[in-house]
Design brief:
With 555 residues, the chain is an alpha/beta fold. It is built from 19 helices and 20 strands. It folds into 3 domains: 240 residues, Tandem AAA-ATPase domain (Rossmann fold, 3-Layer(aba) Sandwich), CATH 3.40.50; 167 residues, P-loop containing nucleotide triphosphate hydrolases (Rossmann fold), CATH 3.40.50; 85 residues, no CATH class. It has a 7-stranded parallel β-sheet with strand order 3-4-2-5-6-1-9, with helices on both faces. It has a 6-stranded parallel β-sheet with strand order 10-17-16-13-15-14, sandwiched between helices. Strands 18-19-20 form a 3-stranded antiparallel β-sheet. Strand 11 and strand 12 form a beta hairpin.
């Protein structure tokens, strides 16, 4: 019986999410580099997995080859929907078309916008908007990959969550992004929900403690950190460089990144007043979202003046101006037109084809400048022919900021990259928060990098690390009329004589809550209440009392 109990406990930390099939490395296209081949082999075996690879490591070819192998495996399977779909941000399908041609794919990916465009078997590609707006039925596909899925956050929380549940009936699911915002744990949990790894509510309960003052602020339980990162490692691969998988980094050296912060001139605020009618000389630096937007609008002339001073220093080289507001975009267009700078300005009111045509014009060197919002163009697009960018302002949105920078700062970029960030004195706290999020992001990447270097893609050895949190030291205290034992009550009561207990005092825990203790022996460490009530491996030993304390009262 105790052997069954031990097996039950070990099952609590064995993360297995295999929905795929094994392939020989030779089945992967020979043009893929070794690190890409290994990731494809791992992802196909998982069947539902996330590729979190740094910018320039080849996520597009990894996705293309993963879906090709899935389709090939089910080619003669009449029960399988023989179509696969890549969903990508605007302006990115050309990247996939280029890579598919390089790999010699004869048919696809075919671009579709609506269900009636879908024909026979094969590989398809679409934009997020088509799926979000209900124009394309994902049930037409047997496999799907979300490219740069972090863009979904811009749709709002409700749409984001609704979108991810659309794919519950798709057997093979993949996510690929370079910036999964690891400092935003909820995003990672939503990816896990999309992949079918774990219900989002269950993951929240299992790993995180709530902040009573801020509803969406998630903090890992300290005793759950090792398990959380191991769980991540079981379904997501974080690769920052080929060396993480044991390969040389030759050809994958990131160029120097020079981020220059410019604080534009302070202007006395004559438009805003205190309650007593006094004008505001210096705006409060603790800006909320609305305050930050107001600050950006009121300081627009100062920002434009700073931009006008920077443009001549670029020497005719291509550059990007990142904006957040429509007024900013209009103003930059006017400024560059007055300066005689040819530009491509991309915004949501344009037809999709026109948006992509303008991005291509910039990439081909037909225009010197690209003007756009990170929320639109900051994901997926490869703009590494350019090495200079200007943020006309800043926001609290770290992911948009990081994604926009990495359109040009990425592997295979041949020149040093310079990024200019314009802000005001009142935005110092915003800037401080942004830089703190950047540091958190780098910290988690290092953690995941260490995991993959230590345990590899297979995760061999993780079991032993997590097993260390099993068990508890037995301690006994005796008195004249009692014996108190601190131990695992399943182990302890299994060794007691039958009918030797007259009274049980208990506090019944929720089976799927995880905050009781760090030990897997805790009755709370279960996937659900059903598993809790089925009892630890069939042990019929008063299983609802706390798992680590027994008190005997002597008669």
């Amino acid at each position: 019986m105790l052997a069954d109990y031990r097996a039950f406990l070990e099952g609590k930390f064995r993360f297995s999410h295999a929905h795929g099939f094994a392939i020989d490395p030779s089945a992967v296209h020979p043009l893929l580099k070794p690190h890409q081949r290994d990731m494809v082999q791992w992802g196909v075996a998982k069947g539902r997995a996330a590729y979190f690879a740094a910018f320039g490591l080849g996520k597009s070819v990894i996705q293309l080859e993963t879906l090709r192998l899935v389709l090939a495996h089910h080619e003669d399977d009449p029960a399988f929907v023989g179509r696969a779909l890549i969903i990508c941000p605007l302006g990115v399908r050309q990247e996939f078309a280029h890579d598919a041609a390089m790999l010699g794919y004869d048919d696809g990916p075919r671009f579709v916008r609506r269900s009636e465009d879908v024909g026979g078997p094969g590989l398809y590609i679409t934009n997020y908007e088509s799926v979000r707006d209900g124009k394309l039925d994902v049930a037409l596909f047997g496999a799907v990959s979300l490219d740069e899925a972090s863009i979904l956050r811009s749709y709002g929380s409700k749409t984001y969550q609704t979108f991810l549940t659309l794919f519950d009936g798709v057997p093979y699911r993949f996510v690929a992004t370079a910036t999964p915002s690891p400092n935003r744990y909820k995003e990672l949990i939503h990816y896990a929900g999309f992949l079918g790894v774990m219900d989002t509510g269950q993951a929240l309960t299992r790993f995180f403690q709530r902040d009573s003052e801020q509803a969406n602020n998630l903090t890992l339980y300290p005793h759950m950190e090792a398990e959380f990162f191991a769980w991540l490692h079981s379904w997501a691969v974080f690769v920052q460089e080929p060396a993480d998988l044991g390969y040389p980094n030759e050809g994958y050296a990131l160029p120097p990144l020079d981020v220059r912060y410019h604080e534009v001139a302070r202007v006395i605020d004559t438009t805003t007043q205190e309650r007593d009618g006094q004008g505001i000389l210096i705006r409060d630096s603790a800006l909320g979202l609305s305050g930050a937007a107001l600050e950006k609008r009121e300081r627009l002339p100062a920002r434009l003046a700073a931009l006008a001073e920077l443009v001549p220093t670029f020497g005719g080289a291509p550059f990007i101006v990142w904006v957040d507001l429509n007024d900013e975009q209009d103003a930059v267009e006017g400024l560059l037109a007055d300066m005689g700078v040819a530009f491509s300005s991309v915004y949501g009111a344009l037809e999709l084809d026109e948006q992509e045509a303008r991005v291509l014009a910039f990439k081909r060197g037909e225009t010197q400048a690209l003007i756009g919002k990170p929320v639109m163009l900051g994901s997926g697009v490869n703009l590494q022919h350019c090495a200079t960018a200007v943020f006309l302002g800043i926001t609290y949105k770290f992911n948009d900021f990081a994604q926009a920078i990495h359109r040009i700062h990425r592997f295979l970029q041949e020149r040093p990259v310079t990024v200019h960030v314009l802000s005001t004195a009142a935005e110092r706290e915003v800037l401080k928060t942004l830089r703190a999020k950047w540091a958190e992001d780098l910290s988690l990447r290092r953690t995941m990098q260490q995991l993959i270097r230590q345990f590899g893609l297979a995760g061999v050895g993780l079991h032993d690390v997590l097993a260390r949190s099993m068990g508890c030291e037995r301690r006994e205290v005796r008195g004249e009329t009692f014996t108190a034992v601190h131990a695992d009550c399943v182990d302890e009561t299994a060794r007691m004589d039958t009918s030797s207990v007259d009274l049980i005092v208990t506090s019944i825990p929720f089976g799927n809550h995880y905050e009781y203790s760090a030990s897997y022996n805790d009755f709370g460490h279960n996937d659900d209440n059903g598993r809790h009530d089925d009892n630890h491996g069939g042990m019929n030993v008063n299983h609802k009392e706390p798992s680590n304390m027994c008190v005997y009262v002597h008669r």
